[in-house]
Design goal:
The chain is 50% helix and 8% strand. With 431 residues, the chain is α/β, with parallel strands linked by helices. Strands 2-3-4-1-5 form a 5-stranded parallel sheet, sandwiched between helices. Helix 14 packs parallel to helix 16 and helix 16 runs parallel beside helix 18. The radius of gyration is 32 Å and the shape is flat.
Amino acid sequence: MAVPLAERIRPASLDEVVGQQHILGKGKPLRRIIESGHIPNMIFYGSSGIGKTTVARIIAERTNMRLHKLNGTSASTADIKAIVEEVHSFAGYNGILLYLDEIQYLNKKQQQSLLEHIENGNITLIASTTENPYFYIYNAILSRSTVFEFKPVEAGEIAKAIRRAFMVLSEEYGTPVEADDSVVMYMAQSCGGDVRKAMNSAELCCFSAEEKDGKKQITRELAEALSQRSSMQYDRAGDQHYDIVSALQKSIRGSDENAALHYLARLLEAGDLISACRRIMVIACEDIGLAYPQAIPIVKACIDAAVQLGLPEGRIPLGDAVVLLATAPKSNSAYLGIDRALADVRAGKAGPIPRCLQNKHYDGDDVKVKGQFYKYPHDYPDHYVRQQYLPDNLAGTVYYEFGDNKNEQAAKAYRMRLLAALAEREKQGKE
């Protein structure tokens, strides 16, 4: 089986690593640690194809420790036990370096089996994960490790790697491979910061390019055909999903319709219509709310239309909804109000429902003053009367505060007029 180009030209030193200068540049923390030769337990966190495995391999080659490699997707408890058994053997005399790829796939028991040995230094752990380690890795492992975040590589750095790839391919196949700067940059931008993806695209382009005049010319059309959709880094159950829906909501909340459309497009390009619809409906209720209450039924209609149409046509009503919400006035007053009420209920601050509100029309023998004593507001001027609605232990509690937008200020003014009129009637003894 042919070895992929990404593996054939994998960097052998820190200076050859593409990107990650925030931790691997001269004088940066991870580089200083590696150069010191004193390797602590570390967790490398970041998306696929950005250098985590490469750096781990470089570290392993610089040490005299016994190297073991496991992948969380296939490793078993027996595999871990076999490594632990080497701790006090001749093979593990200089210590054991365990490179554990995709550690998030190990269960809690498997991760715990390493604790004693990474704590006393018999095993040095270098683990990598594409998921947020603070959600997916056992806390005891985290507390004994240093987390380094690897970031998607910038297009300019990836472009350099693509040019190097074409040079290597030219030498391997004995045929010059050429691509102008615009094609290389397109490929670099299309890979979503994933160097491995870029290498795969470069190799595919080389395989597919027609040979003319003794050379292979990589055209924009060919690059587009082989790089399409490759920039999408998305997992409906992973960090990318939650990052995108979070960015969508925060962009709408921040009244940036252009950013909101961008994140909506990323969801739709990944085919995640349901997540887009659900999040947009939440935003209408949470962030626009009573400042523009008509937005809620309008957005609901847009979502219904999108679901009925499906993709790609569903993008149109969802685009309408996103722009409407981003440009609408904002209020989270009702959202804050229900959360405050829920906090009291969850804290046990419920209390008996006032007798006047109960749905019963008789009293037991234990009730001295019988009667419901409910005041029907429609029987009073302005359809308003003063009476207690909250339980006794919460009387006077305020959960909702009027927002400073036009709609809620109008509702507040109406309420103040009712109270003023009631106060005047009480003063005159009419109630």
